[in-house]
Design a protein that fits this description.
One of its GO terms (molecular function) is 3'-5' DNA helicase activity. Pfam families: DEAD, Helicase_C. It is an enzyme of class 5 (isomerase). Keywords: ATP-binding, DNA-binding, Isomerase, Nucleotide-binding. The protein is an alpha/beta fold. It has 20 helices and 13 strands. Helix 3 runs parallel beside helix 5, helix 16 packs across helix 17 and helix 19 runs antiparallel to helix 20. The longest helix has 24 residues.
Length: about 525
């Protein structure tokens, strides 16, 4: 109490309960909480009834702000954009009496400062001025504070010798699967391959109601809202064919609040079996029915990947899974060859025993090697962070435990310093002490999932070799890469429209490789 604090706890362990504890422990006054999503401000305020309110772009009338200023509420939930500018800043934060009433400043889901602050949420980087106005102890909370994210928070919010409460980030009831993409991306057949409920046992004697109860509620995370429409159409057709009507929904930030609330309610009640969503779903939300998360391609960071994975298995009594597919462009040649000839990954090889600590697998070290090998520094953050590429490479080669790589990267404390598995997690039913949980596809290898023959796409047509085509492909590859770099430097970069994707927003290497590889067909 009275000291800046960093609180790290796994997803699903009720970090929001910290608000309740602080409400009881702190002296009379106002607690100001920054939420990363506008939808969370009202949702969190509703939990505390008359003791709390929220202020965001939809709820910041002068009269309402004056009621906040005058201390009518114990907890005030707001966003970085509202807190750092306009009437909230003028009427509330700059008021001497309000500043005297303030007793704590909390930043929930603090990893978003590092993930979003440099790109589309620059106001996160101005939260330091809120801290200066309030001059009260700060609490930041997250399940995935990387060393870089922690440093960004400490610097931005000027944390003074903070206490660190770290109960780890592990989710032991999640089975982590990293799989190669083997079918055309637009067919979505890789997704179908890991949802056998849509094709296996469809003709069994079990009723649709029984199969619906047994269906693991699934979130499919995408980073392209335009993709949601075509994916919804295809997956909905699969569901109808399997007897599941009206079982697929879409959830992203461009949709109305009413629609998002309906989808969330349908997930909680088991009416929605599959939700195609962006990162807008899940943060701070109740998603206990979810038992499976699918990421059809790599995007973002290890921290963001782990956050998405953590939407599944919120009930510790459930065994859940996270499935991530790796596109061919990120798969090494030897693995591609094995997939083409055997349909499976390369056999697991026993790695040589490490002679030193530095010999142990490390995402940070692997990423540093990858960056050192780049011909030119990226102009903006890549769509896929190097650490996530390194994780996927280890996952496909099965050279290291996926879970341990993530926990080491997030700097989880030693096991002896952590609570037992049963302590931080909530369960709806008894969990046996001797329960055996699967870890990941390295520790618990399994054959790659396959589809029934009738669901597989027809083989591609055989195109005869053309004289000189390979030389032409090599020349075209080089020329297109040079043209891409030149266009970025002279035209595209100056438009400031690239955002997080950088040069890939205009022309990706995957697009160039697609043109070159299909030259014979063209």
């Amino acid at each position: 109490m009275g000291r800046d604090t960093i609180y790290i706890s796994p997803t699903s362990t009720g970090k929001g309960q910290a608000f309740e504890h602080l409400d009881h422990l702190l002296p009379d006054g106002v607690i100001v909480i920054i939420e990363p999503l506008q939808s969370l401000t009202s949702e969190m305020a509703e939990r505390f009834k008359d003791r709390a309110t929220y202020a965001d772009s939809t709820n910041k009338s002068p009269a309402h702000l004056r009621s906040i200023r005058d201390g009518e509420y114990r907890l005030v939930f707001t966003t970085a954009e509202t807190a750092t500018e306009g009437d909230f800043l003028d009427i509330v934060l700059r008021n001497d009496r309000f500043r005297q009433r303030a007793v704590a400043f909390i930043f929930d889901e603090a990893h978003t400062l590092d993930q979003w602050g440099r790109d589309f949420r620059p106001k996160f980087l101005q939260l330091g001025q809120v801290r200066r106005h309030l001059s009260v102890p700060v609490l930041i909370m997250s399940a995935t504070l990387t060393p870089e994210a922690r440093e960004a928070c400490q610097s931005t919010l000027n944390l003074r010798n903070p206490s660190v409460i770290d109960v780890g980030t592990d989710r032991p009831n999640l089975f982590l699967r990293i799989l190669p993409m083997r079918y055309p991306a637009a067919s979505f057949l890789d997704i179908l391959s890991v949802m056998p409920e849509l094709w296996h046992g469809v003709d069994s004697a079990a009723s649709v109601e029984e199969r619906t109860r047994q269906f693991p509620v699934t979130l499919i995370y995408i980073n392209n809202k335009d993709l949601a429409t075509s994916m919804h159409r295809v997956i909905n057709e699969w569901c109808v064919r399997a007897g599941f009507d009206d079982a697929v929904d879409v959830y992203h930030a461009d949709m109305s609040e009413e629609h998002l609330e309906v989808v969330h309610s349908r997930i909680l009640t088991g009416k929605t079996l599959i939700a195609i969503c962006t990162d807008a779903f899940g943060m701070g939300a109740d998603c206990r029915p979810v038992k499976r998360v699918i990421q059809p391609k790599l995007f973002g960071s290890v921290s963001a990947w782990w956050q998405r994975a953590g939407r599944a298995g919120r009930d510790f009594a459930d065994e859940a899974e996270e499935i991530c597919f790796v596109e061919p462009t990120h798969i090494d040649p030897e693995t591609k060859k094995a997939l083409a000839t055997t349909g499976q990954l390369l056999p697991i090889q026993d790695p040589p025993a490490p002679q030193h600590l530095d010999d142990l697998p490390s995402l940070a070290k692997d990423a540093a090697v990858m960056r050192a090998g780049e011909k030119e520094a990226p102009a903006a953050r890549k769509m896929v962070d190097d650490e996530l590429l390194a994780l996927s490479a280890h996952g496909l080669a099965r050279t290291a435990c996926i879970r341990q790589l993530v926990l080491d990267y997030l700097q989880q404390p030693e096991k002896e310093l952590l609570p037992t598995h049963s302590e931080p997690y909530s369960s709806s039913r008894h969990v046996p002490d001797d329960r055996k949980l699967r870890c990941c596809t390295t520790c618990n290898p399994e054959p790659l999932p396959d589809l029934p023959y009738e669901r597989k796409p027809p083989p591609p047509p055989v195109i005869p070799a053309l004289p000189g085509v390979m030389a032409l492909q090599k020349a075209l590859q080089v020329r297109l890469e040079e043209w891409r770099a030149e266009q970025w430097r002279t035209k595209w970069k100056g438009t400031n429209r690239a955002g997080r994707m950088g040069i890939d927003a205009f022309l990706s290497m995957q697009a160039i490789e697609s043109v070159v590889s299909n030259l014979k067909t063209i």
